Amino acid sequence: LLDFPTPLGLRFSLSSLSTPTFATSYMLRSLGLVDGSLSYLYSSLPLSAPSASSSLPLSHIVPGYRVLSSLHQPDEPWLWETWYRGRRIDKRDTLLYGRLFLPRSTLEAFYLRRLSPRSQLKVSCVSDSRLPNGGTVLALLQHDTGRFSTEGLYSTDSALLGLRGLYNFGPPPPPPPPPSPHTAAHDLHPTITSSSSSSSAQAAARLSLGAEAYFSPLNKSGGLSTGLRFSTLAPHPGFPYTMTLTLNPLMGSLESTYSVRASELLALSSRFDFNVYSYESGLVLGMELWRLSD
Asked: Please, are residues 259 and 268 in contact by the beta-carbon 8 Å criterion?
């Protein structure tokens, strides 16, 4: 609600989900000069996203206020195992994405690999002759246990190393239901149980604490920041709202936000930032207003 790009010029995009595992997208933009991009996406896990614009609500693809979902405990690793005649034949899902910008010949690539029910690997890279060393690569290793999640990263740009962590206070997420027994010995499909079931008593709000630290051995520089968030969940009887507090001790920056969904068609947000070194401050207000079609 507070930070969003302002459209410039004319932009036309056309996307298609030709198969459940393959999608394409084409973009043409006119901003003084005409340029565009070609995008391709492959997923070993079939996608269930709507392929028709008429069946996709506009509010689902426009950035705005979102109500957090309940925490879910990941499945146990043995639930993803599939055995056939004494051999393990299960595979891990993979996602590949590539985007070529024309006429600049800039290439973006993205690789995502599920390592286990609680961890995954993400590798993204950019190839451009105008960048140092002709491009950069960013690798992230993510681990999520439901209540606590961590993320380690490495970037070839200045050999940057980073570590992030997020902890959610409150009751632990409910355990996944027990798996159903196989009905046939020759079943080749893994029995993956859904961990989306929730207990009868759900929390109405959630308090989260996060922190991140970065260090570059080449530049001999680093960064540190921490944040606190309180947000209501779906069971909350009143208006959904979210409050955040972010602190960067090295830069002396302090930032607080408050967002509320006053109704199904109206959301309001505000942000106040202050720097303890320069005494500079700022206030930003934002609003999201929808109009129902006749």
From this structure: yes
Q: CA 287, CA 259: separation in Å to the nearest integer?
A: 9
Give the SS3 label for residue 213: strand
Check if the beta carbon of residue 242 is closer than 8 Å to that of residue 231: yes
- pTM value? 0.79
Check residue 177 and give its pLDDT: 64
Which residue from 122, 47, 45, 49 is spatially nearest to 91, judged by alpha carbons? 45
Give Cα separations from 8 to 15, 209, 261 (angstroms): 20, 37, 29
Q: Which of 177, 186, 178, 179 is nearest to 89 (CA)?
A: 186
Contacts of 146 (CB under 8 A, 6+ apart): 71, 72, 73, 74, 172, 173
Decide if 167 contacts 210 (C-beta within 8 A): yes
> Burial, 212: exposed, middle or buried (Cβ in 10 Å; 0-12, 13-18, 19+)?
middle
- 51-62 pLDDT, tens digit per residue, is 667 777 777 778
249 alpha carbon, distance to own chain's centre: 26
CA-to-CA distance for 241 and 261, rounded, in angstroms?
6
Contact 151, 211 (CB under 8 A): no
Least confident of 11-20, 36-45, 110-119: 11-20
The string of DSSP codes covering 37-89 is: EEEEEEESSPP----SGGGS-GGGTS----PBPPP-PPPPGGGG--EETTEE-
Give residue 247's pLDDT band: very low, low, confident or very high (50, 70, 90): very high
Q: Which amino acid is at 214?
A: Y
Residue 193: its pLDDT value, please?
38
For 159, the 3-state DSSP assignment is: helix
In this prediction, residue 7 has a pLDDT band, given cuts at 50, 70 and 90, of confident
